[in-house]
Amino acid sequence: MKNISRPHASLLRWTLAFVLALAGAAPFAEPVSEVSLNAQLLLAARDGDVATVQRLLVMGAAPNSRNRIGKTALMMAAESGRLDLAEALLKAGGDVQLPAANKVTPLMAACNAGNVEMVRRLLDAGAKPDTTDQVDKTAMIYAAGQGHASVVALLLERGVPVNAIYDHQLTALMWAAGNGHPEVVKLLLAKGADTGARDDRGLNALDIARQTGQAETAALLSGSVALK
Predict the structure, then answer these.
(1) How far does CA 53 lie from the centroid of its chain?
(2) Roughly how many angstroms between the first and final C-alpha of the chain, as a whole number?
């Protein structure tokens, strides 16, 4: 039996050594440059490296590649306000409406960040301002809720109704008032925002401003209501 087992043991040792050798070589089987072009594109976009993004697009990277949470390179450009990056991606076929996993679109991201020129470019590229995310927020809600008056003005200019009703019967005026953004409240009032509109709790913009302790927006709305 010993004469039979020795060759088997030897063969087993040789096989194990061969497998281990292959395993050790595996990490080097592909050079680093062979990493997915799409993954490289997303990394370059995250870093704001426009030159690398353009090179990867020419090499065949998909402009609408998405990371593990669904963000595209265009979304990253919108979040960071990199207009040059967004321009390169749009020219390559970047989908202006493609959302992340939470259904936030590049336009919503730009409105949240308050970059009016990015918002303008995305709208020019066909972004739809009435699209909603997974919690039913729109581009206008992001802009008004964050207090970005110039973005709100642009959205109104592009056709978003000043008295549009959103989830829970809220209006842009209510969002701005409740979050304490007087400049947006002034703008909306000047554009004809309805101070009498009520949400699904029966509260108007003034009620919401008072409830959230926003004295300045409450004073603006109180004066507007008194004039009526």
Answers:
(1) 19
(2) 107
